[in-house]
Specification:
The protein has about 90 residues and is an alpha+beta fold. The protein contains 2 helices and 8 strands. It has helices at about 70-80, 85, and strands spanning about 1-5, 5-10, 15-25, 25-30, 35, 40-45, 50-55, 60-65.
Amino acid sequence: MEFRERIAAVTSPEHFDLLIFLDGKGRIEFGEGAEAYAPAECWLLPAALGAYQLVPESSSTLLRTYVPDLHDFVRRLADERVEESAWSRVVHP
């Protein structure tokens, strides 16, 4: 994700979010608090955090990811007819 403007986001109650900042500086604002982010930092946002905003001071790039529920993930792969041989060595439900 690349951004230069404020971004509003919400965590899912089902999993934490991991934000990996590749470039840029700014703040993560949440509730009554805020924390600065910088390149090469990783932030673990708890599932219960809820609403937050990313407020860049400069153009920023990040990866936003989470660990999926593996059973649901495998079910989605099967629904899309992805052969088990294509994923079985890296996904262990």
